[in-house]
Amino acid sequence: MLTVIVATVSVSLLYFVLPGMTEAQTEKTFVTHSGAVIKTTGDVLDPVYTPQTVEFDPAKYLREFNYGRISKLDDGRTLREFTIIAEDDKIMEISPGVFYNVWTFNGTVPGPTIRATEGDVVRVKFFNNGLKSHTMHFHGIHPAEMDGVFETVGPGGQFTYEFEAGPVGVHPYHCHMMPLEEHISHGLYGVYIVDPKEGRSPADEMVMVLNGFDTDFDTENNFYAANSIPFYYQHHPIQINKDQLIRVYVVNMVEFDPINNLHLHGNLYYYYPTGTDTVPSTFTDMITLSQTERGIMEFKYNYTGKYLFHAHKVEFSEKGWIGIFLVKDSEAKVE
Ligand SMILES: [Cu+2]
User: Rounded to 5 degrees, what are φ and ψ at 188?
Assistant: First the structure.
């Protein structure tokens, strides 16, 4: 009798420890190209079913900030409302000819950059239109029930996250269902920026999410990028002005590899880890970032020309995580 009770309690506890493991997520065995046999909760799509293809534009994503639908609450605080829809059946051409099943917030990887000012009320209406359970877990300060971990949102379900924006800084948000690395590595993440009430100095601002894709399911990334498409900013350099302050919100969302890094050519940058302090911690041309580590980089170029930025982990840069800043004379028109 005691054995039965212990077994029942153990199984019940397991359910709470692994809230994401539902019947819909039964593991399947999968043989990779390298011959390794691994388990996946399944993104081996039905070949007869034609999923929608995601078009993602890294040039547009780079400087696109979503401030939400803005209104005033009775207590005078600003309310910012966002609608986020999760899906898990889309296909994206990661690299020419390489199609991959991405899981998306609002149809893209990364999801939209959510931006608020410290003290605002952020309300996110989250709809799960996927075939698996998903959540939204924001980094930052909020009540436990808004943490997006234990409140599983099943297929067709919805949940409203509401919390006060804070602390000031740059934070990731991501799905927190188990197996976590699977939900993150498929693309369920984005950036959440909290501005100080007094604002920051004017700058040409941009977001870089450092990410990777394991397209053969062997828990090693095959492609790396800043903003999802390998080599994109090398082929389409980011145009900036000489002598203009550039502010980059950088977030490392690479799974499987313990570290990532970012090296800037011909310059150094002031770096604010997590963006929480107004005083930079360092002036450098290299930062090292673990999973979900992030910060703000600020710099100006004194000379025009082409400058690389890339992972100094050479494997990553050779597999796509590399780009170019094209610095133009401030007087010249930026096209
Ligand atoms: Cu998920």
Answer: -85, 75
**What φ, ψ does residue 80 adopt, rounded to 5°?**
-120, 115
Rounded to the nearest whole angstrom, what is the distance from the C-alpha of residue 108 to the centroid of ligand 1?
14
Whole-model pTM: value is 0.85
d(CA 180, ligand 1 centre) in Å: 8
Q: What is the DSSP letter of 66?
A: B
3-state secondary structure of 89: strand
If you measure from the C-alpha of residue 289 to the centroid of ligand 1, how many angstroms do you get, rounded to a whole number? 23
Radius of gyration over alpha carbons of the chain, in Å?
Answer: 21
In a domain, 27, yes or no: no
274-328 residue pLDDT tens: 999 999 999 999 999 999 999 999 999 999 999 999 999 999 999 999 999 999 9
Strand partners, 258: none
CB count, 10 Å around CB of 76? 6
The range of the structural domain enclosing residue 320 comes to 204-328
Residue 41 is assigned to a structural domain of this protein: no
210 and 182, same structural domain? no
The residues facing 49 across adjacent strands are none
Whether residues 278 and 154 share a domain: the answer is no
Q: In the chain, where does DSSP find H-type helix?
A: 2-17, 58-62, 180-185, 232-235, 314-318
CA of 106 to the centre of ligand 1 (A): 13
Residue 157 lies in a domain: yes
Of 177, 195, 213, which marks where a domain is finished? 195
Residue 267 lies in a domain: yes
User: Going by DSSP bridges, is the β-strand pair 53-54/78-95 parallel, antiparallel, or unpaired?
Assistant: parallel
Q: What is the pLDDT of residues 54-84, one digit of tens each?
A: 889 999 999 999 999 999 999 999 999 999 9
Judge if 84 and 186 occupy the same domain.
Answer: yes
Q: Cα(280) to centroid of ligand 1, in Å?
A: 34
Amino acid (1-letter code) at residue 296: I
Q: Which of 142, 173, 195 is the last residue of a domain?
A: 195
Query: 184 C-alpha vs ligand 1 centroid, how far in Å?
Result: 7
Q: How many domains does the chain have?
A: 2
How many angstroms separate the CA atoms of 275 and 289, rounded? Answer: 14
